[in-house]
Specification:
With about 325 residues, the chain is mostly beta strands. Helices cover about 0% and strands about 55% of the residues.
């Protein structure tokens, strides 16, 4: 048995107009095996808590591709509706909550049957990201054009409350929930991150770089990392003080970011540079040269898996831009 940490990275190839997921060994930052074909636009990636499957939402095909992380092949394709986005799992791994943008709903996939479970949950216009509360009681959904966050009660699968996170259209995208009682959501058009205090449902705003998009939280909950697409940097937010402690320059058009399970490294997908930047989270600096990838990267997920003799791993989030794989703004 061996344990190896891998990054799953969503790739769009503008030459062949194809999409795939590549697997990167984070020990040496080399690609393992062949690309795993998906639809043209594999928008987001999330991994089941047991690490057995990677769920990939494909924006163009309206499907979720379920990849077996051991043999690195597509196991099942689940139709979910038009413009699928973020995916989050309940802590027990039984259900995946999938934002379906054009349908203005969240669909549930039963991870045992790998089929849609029950009826879709209606939300406001164009849901984008999904974040699961650490205790699993709520799935928080960012709503693109109404600039809101809705809280879905995972026991009833009803929306318990919806909060505005901007006075005007902000294009609310990446979202995470912290263990100390906050929800952080990127407001791309307002160049800020909205912070919801769950205890009283109040909202405050943190200025960041230009066009924030991807959001990830450190494993210990201490920092939130935000990619700023148009300023080519990452803002690092202290979750206690709710201030930006660091700004780190990366490559062109950074889209998504994911941390290794030990929290020591953060990998950034630079969509415009066609490479990945690696951040040392202790020094808050970029280390080494960018890692080239075969196309335009967007989403990324990182996990450690255990396999007999040979190894492979699991992944997580991802998003895009319009045109060649650039940001979805209709």
């Amino acid at each position: 048995m061996s344990k190896i940490t891998y990054a799953f990275v969503g790739i769009f190839d503008p030459d062949s107009i194809t999409g795939s997921v590549i697997v990167l060994n984070t020990a040496n930052n080399t690609v393992v095996g062949d690309p795993i074909p998906t639809g043209v636009n594999p928008l987001n990636i999330s991994i089941t808590p047991d690490g057995d499957y990677a769920y990939v939402s494909d924006y163009d095909s309206d499907n979720v591709y379920i990849i077996n992380t051991i043999n690195k092949t597509v196991d099942t394709v689940v139709p979910v509706g038009h413009f699928p986005g973020g995916i989050a799992f309940t802590p027990d791994g039984r259900y995946a909550y999938v934002a379906v943008g054009d349908n203005s709903e969240v669909s549930l996939i039963d991870t045992i049957t790998k089929e849609i479970a029950g009826s879709p949950i209606p939300v406001d216009s164009s849901p984008n990201g999904v974040a699961m509360a650490p205790d699993g009681f709520y799935a928080y959904v960012s709503i693109d054009f109404s600039s809101e966050v809705s809280a879905i009660n995972t026991a009833t699968n009803n929306v318990d409350w919806t909060i505005s996170v901007s006075p005007d259209i902000a294009l609310s995208t990446g979202i995470v929930a912290s263990p100390n009682g906050y929800v952080f959501v990127a407001n791309s058009l307002r160049h800020q991150v909205a912070v919801i205090t769950l205890a009283d449902q109040s909202v405050e705003w943190i200025p960041v770089g230009d066009y924030p998009w991807g959001v990830a939280i450190a494993p210990d909950g201490s920092y939130v990392y935000v990619t700023n697409v148009l300023s080519n940097n990452v803002s690092v937010i202290n979750t206690t003080t709710k201030t930006v402690d660091y700004t780190i320059n990366v490559g062109d058009y950074p889209y998504h970011i994911a941390l290794t399970p030990d929290g020591r490294r953060a990998y950034v997908t630079n969509n415009g540079s066609k490479n990945l930047s690696i951040i040392d989270t202790e020094t808050k600096t970029v280390i080494g040269d960018p890692v080239s990838v075969p196309g335009e990267p967007a989403g990324i997920a990182i996990a450690t898996i255990t396999t007999p003799n040979q190894s492979i791993s699991r992944g997580i989030p991802f998003y895009t831009l319009n045109g060649g794989y650039k940001i979805h703004i209709d």
